[in-house]
Amino acid sequence: MVRKAIIQKRKALSNNIRDEKSLAIAQRLFGLDEFKKSDAVLCFLCRSNEVQTDMIIRESFRMGKKVFVPLVNIRQRNLQVTQITSLDIKLVIGDYGVREPASELQEIVSPSCLDLVITPGLAFDAFGNRIGYGGGYYDKLLKKLSGGVTRIGVGYDFQVLNSVPHSELDKSVQFVVTETKTLKCLNYKTLEV
Predict the structure, then answer these.
(1) What is the DSSP letter of 145?
(2) Which of 100, 122, 169, 172 would give a disulfide with 128, using CB separation of 3.0 to 4.6 Å?
(3) Could you read off the pLDDT of 37-91 as tens digits, one per residue?
(4) 174-193: per-residue pLDDT in tens?
(5) Which of 173, 158, 75 is nearest to 120 (CA)?
(6) Is 101:107 a contact under the CB 8 Å cutoff?
(7) CA–CA separation, 49 vs 52, rounded Å?
(8) Residues paired with 81 in a beta bridge
(9) Cβ–Cβ < 8 Å for 124, 161
(10) How would DSSP label each residue in 162-185?
């Protein structure tokens, strides 16, 4: 029910409004110390209604960061990680309509090389809980990361809810960045560690 409502709201955004909101989100993200200090960033390659991440990726390159993107592996039902050196490389549409580097450009690396992950989501709350698309792909990836890796969810204001349903299988984020706010999540899971 939440997924459907958020997807409808995202589809209703014009390209201009989507791009304005995405630019504001990117600028907020660039202001975070955790982003400035990071060396190896995983950032998703956006689909049309999601927060537009190409500017985040370009700025990461400009700042001299190593940039990695997720690859959907449907057979293993998980995300793999590969480095990219530019957005001008050959990108193809992979599983679930997600852009990814052409197969000859994919070199799978361990997620242990990452120090910051920018994750999509359909909904977030102030505790860092997130609702994804239902496959658990990001939850599995986030569980593989060490405690020192910063996890940031990006979304539009209307994607931040008072509370989102979650379970022990779900992995939360430490920050949620929208076009008007940056939430440092009151993450019980993080506090317990």
Answers:
(1) S
(2) 172
(3) 999 999 999 998 999 999 999 999 999 999 999 999 888 889 999 999 999 999 9
(4) 999 999 999 999 764 433 32
(5) 173
(6) no
(7) 8
(8) 70, 109
(9) yes
(10) S-----TT----SEEE-SS-EEE-
3-state secondary structure of 2: helix
Backbone angles phi, psi at 120, to 5 degrees: -80, 175
Q: What are the CA-CA distances from residue 181 to residues 30, 38, 76 (Å)?
A: 13, 21, 36
Give the integer Cα–Cα distance in Å for 6 and 4: 6
**Residues 40, 185 contacting (CB under 8 angstroms):** no
Indicate whether this model's pTM tops 0.90: yes
Both structure tokens of 132: 């994804």
Site of tokens 């050196």: 85
Residue type for 58, please? R
Tokens of 189: 């899971």
C-alpha 166/C-alpha 106 separation (Å) is 33
In the numeric block, the tokens 């706010």 are attached to 181
* Strands of 182-184's sheet in order across: 108-109, 78-84, 66-73, 40-43, 116-119, 150-154, 175-177, 182-184
Angle between helices 15-31 and 54-62 (to 10 degrees): 30
Containing 131, the helix (H) or strand (E) segment is strand 130-131
How many CB atoms sit inside 10 A of residue 177's CB? 26
One-letter amino acid of 29? L
115 dihedral zone (left: phi>0; alpha: psi -120 to 50; beta): alpha
Task: Specify the length of the chain in residues.
Answer: 193
